[in-house]
Amino acid sequence: MPALTTNNPSSSAASSSSASSSGPAARTTYEPLSSAKGPAGSSNPPRVSLPIPIGNVALNTVNDIEKARSKAAFDPAKIEEVIRDGRIDNESRRKIIKTLDADEVFGDWKKRMLHFNREQQMAMSHKACRRLLDIAERDEWDTQEIIEAAISLDLQSPVTIHWVAFVPVIMSQGSPEQVERWGGRAMNHEILGAYLQTELGHGTNVQGLETLATYDEESDSFDIHSPTLTSTKWWAGGSGLTCTHGIVQAQLYIKGRRYGPHLFFVPMRSLETHEKLPGIVAGDIGPKTYGAFGGLDNGWVRFDHVKIPRDNMLGKHAHVKKGGEYVKPPSDKLSYGGMIFIRSQMIDRTGWMLSRGITIATRYSLVRRQFRDPDAKEGEIERSVLSYPSLNRRLMPLLAKSFAYIIAGRRMRILYEEMASQLESGDTTLLADVHVASSSLKAYCTKQSLDGIEECRQALGGHGFSAYAGFSSLFPDQAPTVTYEGDNYVLCQQVGRAMLKIAGELQRNPQGANVSNTTDFLRALATPNAIPYTAPQTAEEWLRPESWTGALRLRCARRVADLQAEITQAGRRFVDLSWDCVEVAKSHAEIVVNAWFTEGVEGDAQAYGEEASHWLRKIVALNGLTSVARDITPLALPAAEGRELAGYKSGQAVLGPKSVLALEAAVRSLVEEVLGQAIPMCDSFGWSDWELGSSLGRKDGRVYESLMAEAEGNPLNHAPKGNSIDDVGRYTYSAPNGGKYISHTFREELEPLFRAAAARSGEEPIKGSGAKL
Amino acid sequence: MPALTTNNPSSSAASSSSASSSGPAARTTYEPLSSAKGPAGSSNPPRVSLPIPIGNVALNTVNDIEKARSKAAFDPAKIEEVIRDGRIDNESRRKIIKTLDADEVFGDWKKRMLHFNREQQMAMSHKACRRLLDIAERDEWDTQEIIEAAISLDLQSPVTIHWVAFVPVIMSQGSPEQVERWGGRAMNHEILGAYLQTELGHGTNVQGLETLATYDEESDSFDIHSPTLTSTKWWAGGSGLTCTHGIVQAQLYIKGRRYGPHLFFVPMRSLETHEKLPGIVAGDIGPKTYGAFGGLDNGWVRFDHVKIPRDNMLGKHAHVKKGGEYVKPPSDKLSYGGMIFIRSQMIDRTGWMLSRGITIATRYSLVRRQFRDPDAKEGEIERSVLSYPSLNRRLMPLLAKSFAYIIAGRRMRILYEEMASQLESGDTTLLADVHVASSSLKAYCTKQSLDGIEECRQALGGHGFSAYAGFSSLFPDQAPTVTYEGDNYVLCQQVGRAMLKIAGELQRNPQGANVSNTTDFLRALATPNAIPYTAPQTAEEWLRPESWTGALRLRCARRVADLQAEITQAGRRFVDLSWDCVEVAKSHAEIVVNAWFTEGVEGDAQAYGEEASHWLRKIVALNGLTSVARDITPLALPAAEGRELAGYKSGQAVLGPKSVLALEAAVRSLVEEVLGQAIPMCDSFGWSDWELGSSLGRKDGRVYESLMAEAEGNPLNHAPKGNSIDDVGRYTYSAPNGGKYISHTFREELEPLFRAAAARSGEEPIKGSGAKL
Q1: What does pLDDT average to over chain A?
Q2: Given pLDDT bands bounded at 50, 70 and 90, which one contains residue B740?
Q3: In total, how many domains does chain A have?
Q4: What's the pLDDT tens digit per position in A617-645?
Q5: CA B50, CA A306: separation in Å to the nearest integer?
Q6: How are beta strands B280-284 and B193-196 bridged, if at all?
Q7: Parallel, antiparallel, or unpaired for β A326-327 and A319-320?
Q8: Keyword Lipid metabolism, does the record have it (chains A, B) (predicted)?
Q9: Which of A587, A699, B57, B408 has the lowest CB atom count within 10 Å?
């Protein structure tokens, strides 16, 4: 038998600092993985059934990741402790994950969901909610803990929507009396709700909604009506099959006059029979793209002159008096609060989603080895693919983005809270700034994160196409974020408009305008030296925070100057500049992310501790520099005539060729430096193997053993036990018929056809089993 | 009742040139769509059951698209006729589509696939193949027609793989004797095959494969063996559950000496019992990401010292004599042919996939109206979203890419044929050039196309998240193309290496080197004025072909000069330049696409006719200019010292600010011009509604009616008829229980829980159905 690989397993194991005597080096055969989950009620851990020599390639993976982990220059737990402390505390979070991981239904849940069809996913979604609520009662979880559990399960269900959309709308938009009337019953699940805003014909353009709420003076009630096909309410989660009540956005009409969209509380299904109430027609809108949201009945709903009491209009801001007098909200701006709230919650969430992708991609790329280095010494094994720049130059910036969006998103939440409490007392100082920043970050971070997740999947090579890579709900679930809560391109145009407005104010009154550190860069348009900047000439100079911060600010100012010139110089209308606004918004978002990420890291520096802070600052630098590198042209290209920033001469670029070369060298050196800490950095996100649901992202590096175990146990290889939904997608390790499943339909459908064709062919038939062909 | 919309349906219908007296303007109620498919055996066309006033928004869509179509400045059929003429002729293609569209199983196939679970998809895949072969026999289709039908169905099945991978490998790599022995039986389906190359531990790095084929002199046979866990064959389509025979790539060892990977014909399952033959262990590897390839049993296979006769090594190029003498192939380069063949087939295919996405996105964006123009006159309706630059500036370049990859891909096939026939006679003149171009285009076009498809989906707004948008198999099926047949990043490095090699040859011997119009731009590194270029100063100047062709060539030369300098100036190793190669390969691919796209359009100019050629030339220009605009920096930034192109002074950029502004203006004017022909351009791809499987991409524009019909008919809204697989996912229009399905699991699982919680809450229980809340 020829020698297969050139490395020596015992020597490589010996070089691993953490290899114990019974460690991986001692194994020669593929063994059961302890994390494999058993069928409900089984007492023995399930075992894979194939005796396979494990071989050096698979053996090495454990050593590789342990070695990388042993070189950690900081304690990942310190970072996890700060950044995970959110809606619930870390201890509660760990308790929840542990409970779900060990649970007989939820332990294998993510894998089994891959095998259910739409109808089964919908049914399982209800079952999962029941079990979640049962566990919550048993273990005394509060609502925030239940929500955290549902999020951990990647569970999109009518009950989840009830908590995250229906209840908050009542609480924030209802009058005190309405909150009392409906809020408690909703929290108790006496009623189950949906939030119906978008329609078949209109989404982001809320003013274009067609559903009518017409005040009828005689009965002192509203008539809720869907006048056209396109006015059909569309998309609302839970509205298709499940919810009992809905908050419906409709155009308010009183005595023939239109007052714009308002919110109405509308009973939809009987609490006694669950039949739809008179005048309501509704159903599920069908499957979602890429199989996303299978357990959620996004619905279509039509109202045929449904009458609701006048008091069912949500009345925190505006209300209608008996007889039809409309009492308008004290300020038009108050209603912005809700949109800003939702967008402000999305930023760190997109960072967390991306962090799942990057954790999987980084861990697998570290332990995956391909191609020997041409300069390798005899006996050296193949290179870790993470050591190739084509991988690490792609992945490390995504690692930086994950931290950036998580930490900047935390700043965003704090700013939102400040703004909201200001608003309560009628103070709108922060409103404009927080509004534009939240639009800017929502549009930028959701798109960067979605692209980044798919980039992580592609970085896995061939196995990235397996569902066991762990991206099957990650990418699809993230997919709608670029359109919902305001289509990103519409938001970009809003950001562009805000930039022009502020720039104009600053040009008119350089000192008086209300700007913050995310908008004061606009002074550069009219004030010479508003952003003092010396172009870095070496990689070292680029590593100073002012180098990237200044470049980001100057670049965005250049983009805004160009946008302005398209109107003043080229005479184009703002409404036709939506494409020009895209780069303005992106470059503005990168200023905000950089500013808030920096503030977040510095603000929590004590909690992180010295070592972790040191490395987080490198991540801040990496994010800043790659943000600059994303779009160099406005810095490298002199401004065209009449588009110069104040103080810059025509024909003068911000960066010369030497600076641009140095920037790439700086990024390269940072990537190489961060690379040595990439595994502990990923560990600091705190994802458990159960949450990731990924064979390739396993914390212990046993990727090949895990893929083999999942593949062997996957239901397609085993005859189904019964017809119950509880058997669908059940992984059966070590079954007597393991790997022996025969595709019945093949034998029934195709084989007879092939035999007949062969008989007709005139060739001499194959004798026997074909083993001698 | 207040007036809802400001437009007047009768006047807008009157302005449509094609509105007939019984046309859309006459409709006031949502009507059944003629394309809805009935259940098997039904004689009446299915009807939607909801009486809904249709409304102006939905009514307008038909007028909008007909109006756009009536403005066609060329005949779309002329283009379709040329570009669709491929493996089969147009008439056969139309016949196949018509047959499948009308077929009781295949008519609703694409929609129903969304509702099957993995096990059901696998079973349905076999059923579909049977029906396909039955139809083929009935209608006398040949093999190419069967393959075309399978592709039209988006059917990834073991039988498809047998045709497109197994049979071609036998034909191209087998000796004449082997082709006779296995080829006919394979064509007849007496045997069903799989092609087993990649393993759990290795993919693109074929040299790293671990499976062994050891020659045993005594028995004059090969011993096929999987020595380690990671040597397990992984991914081969059809190998998991179905195939009877496999072509296995394994490391050939004779008398202890390794000869590298070779191909072996290995019997795997009994033709009599379909049981796996002794020594074979195999199974399905599990679901694929995003639900892709559900009907294909990608497999894992292990060989435990399986003996096959010596003659089972595929012997066209090399063979082993009795006793163990290895007879090597006449040229090492011959084996390149296969890889180049597969890659060369992928280019137009990626264009076709993208063209589906862009057809859907363009049609829907035209008929979708959102927001009124601020300068609109009273009574004007909302703007078509396609008129917004943020949409058309995204979509029109993707339209151009679709044509570019389809037409350049056709040139690629022709060049491959030329090269292959040269190779047959030992002539390798074309080999190097075709090899690098195929790698470059494969890496570039697959990625651009995959990103472009998802971009098209995102451009649809909220409804892009519905499976009825038609992207649920489009994107997932395209997803693996970036890694299979050579990971794109590995290919980019090969392109970079080739560029350096050719550049070096040209520097040593400017006149003698073997270059073509896709590589001779490299002269610019050493020869002054090799690419004569005057930077365009106006949009008009940019519209001349030499402006973008020259810019693309100069840009790539700059990238290669930088790559070279990283080695000679910065002292980095080539193996560490994989990231630097990415932009080199991209910019090279854009030269090739532009050159071949141009040649393709000019070469077929007569067949297209004058009008269509005129518009295709605009598409060539749009693709060329947006390719330049994709990455302006190397043109706008002067070269750093020692990195200048010959004839350029240090500090001198190719393009100044005025040129860059003019470029964007040129793109804008081209986009606006092409926009008026966008609908006929999409029509010229020739996709039928059945093939697109998209409510939003309907040729007649009835998008809202279609979404409503699909949503109403979707199985989740109807109680299932029976337990047979034939009932799964069956759309039930106009059923008596239409829209009245009650989620049984909700009532069983959640409702009792909620009632119990309510009872415990201490609040006064809700009286009645909750309709009064």
Answers
A1: 90
A2: low
A3: 4
A4: 999 999 999 999 999 999 999 999 999 99
A5: 17
A6: unpaired
A7: antiparallel
A8: yes
A9: A699
Closest CA to A56 of A85, A99, A24, A82: A24
Neighbours of A658 (CB within 10 A): 15
**B762 at the A interface (CB within 8 A)?**
no
Mutate to test the interface with B, among A105, A271, A572 (most CBs of B within 10 A): A271
Tokens of B596: 């071949």
Last residue of a domain, one of B274, B298, B329: B329
pLDDT confidence of A438, banded at 50, 70, 90? very high
Say how far apart CA B726 and CA B723 lie, in whole Å: 8
Domain boundary residue, one of A682, A705, A723: A682
The reply to whether B39 falls in a domain is no
> How far apart are alpha carbons A362 and A366 in whole angstroms?
6
> Which among B190, B465, B758 has CB closest to A288?
B465
Q: Which of B746, B755, B766, B767 to mutate to test the interface with A (most CBs of A within 10 A)?
A: B746
Q: What is the number of other CB atoms lying within 10 angstroms of the CB of residue A77?
A: 15
Its pTM stands at 0.94
What is the CA B752 to chain-centroid distance, rounded? 49
pLDDT in tens, B239-261: 999 999 999 999 999 999 999 99
Please check whether residue A630 touches B, CB under 8 A. no
- Residues of A within 8 A of B229 (CB-CB) are 30, 52-55, 57-58, 704-705, 708
Indicate if A374 and A270 belong to the same structural domain.
no
Q: List residues forming the annotated binding site of A for FAD.
A: 198, 237
- Tell me the ipTM for this assembly: 0.94
Q: Is the pLDDT of residue B178 over 70?
A: yes
Q: How far apart are CA A211 and CA A566, in angstroms?
A: 38
Strands B257-267 and B280-284: unpaired
| Active-site residue (options: A145, A199, A455, A485) | A485
Interface of B with A in 678-737 (CB under 8 A): 704-705, 707-708, 710-712, 714-717, 720, 723, 728-729
Residues B542, B627: one domain?
Answer: yes
Q: Residue B439: what pLDDT?
A: 95
Q: Is A485 annotated in the active site?
A: yes
Contact, A366 vs A65, CB < 8 A? yes
> Same domain, yes or no, for A430 and A572?
yes
| Beta carbons of A744 and B773 less than 8 Å apart | no
Tokens of A283: 């159903």
DSSP A486: S
What are the DSSP E strand ranges found in A21-126?
none
Contact B25, B9 (CB under 8 A): yes
Q: Do A595 and A460 reside in the same domain of the chain?
A: yes
Question: Does B206 contact A at CB distance below 8 Å?
Answer: no
Q: From the centroid of its chain, how far is CA B70?
A: 30
Q: Are residues A244 and A124 in the same domain?
A: no
pLDDT digits (tens, 9 = 90+) for A4-51: 333 333 333 333 333 333 444 456 787 766 554 544 444 444 556 677
Q: Does B3 touch chain A (CB under 8 A)?
A: no
Mutate to test the interface with A, among B716, B733, B744, B748 (most CBs of A within 10 A): B716
**Greater pLDDT, B713 or A673:** A673
Tell whether B384 and B318 lie within a shared domain: no
What is the residue range of B651's domain? 339-682
Catalytic residue among B66, B80, B81, B485: B485
Give me the DSSP letters along B169-228.
Answer: HHHHHS-HHHIIIIIHHHHTTSS-EEEE--BSS-SS-GGG---EEEEETTTTEEEEE--S
Report whether B478 contacts B453 (CB < 8 A). yes
A residues 335-394 lying closer than 8 A (beta carbon) to B:
370-371, 373-375, 382, 388-391, 393-394
Write the residue in B126, B741, B771 that is nearest to A745 by C-beta. Answer: B126
* Residues A178, A110 share a domain: no
